[in-house]
Each structure stands twice: as C-alpha cells, then as structure tokens.
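Marked as duplicate of an earlier ticket. Keeping the data here for the record.
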Amino acid sequence: GFSWTAEPGADIKAMEGSYEFKELDDGSTEVLYALRVDPAFTIPGFLRKQAEKQIVSSALRGLKKRAEASA
C-alpha cells in the first residue's frame, strides 16, 4: 500500500490518507482506504457526510483509473 500527508494550509490543519491492498483467494483485491482530515473551520454534520461520500467516490474513481491504466 501507500500513504500520504498533505501540507497544512489555510483550510486544512492536517490531512493524511492511505491505501492498503490485500489479494484474496479468488484473485480479486480488497482495498482499504483511510483518510483523516482536520479542517481549520467547523463543518456542520450534514455537510460533513456529503463531503465524505464525495471524497470516497472520487478516491475510488481515481484508483480505478490508475489500476486500469497500468493493467
């Protein structure tokens, strides 16, 4: 797998993420995606949930694109 840490900025105090890959018996791959974000401002719960869904969807699309490009 791999991980990263973003530089703090005006909107983000801290952000780090990672991907872990596990090959399964059937030849497929299980992916564990983790992301921790510490924003520099308060985010209401309903907006946080929307942002989480968009971030995960975007991460999966990006991972799929990279995997297909190197296949």
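See parent ticket for discussion. Strands lie at 2-6, 12-23, 29-39.
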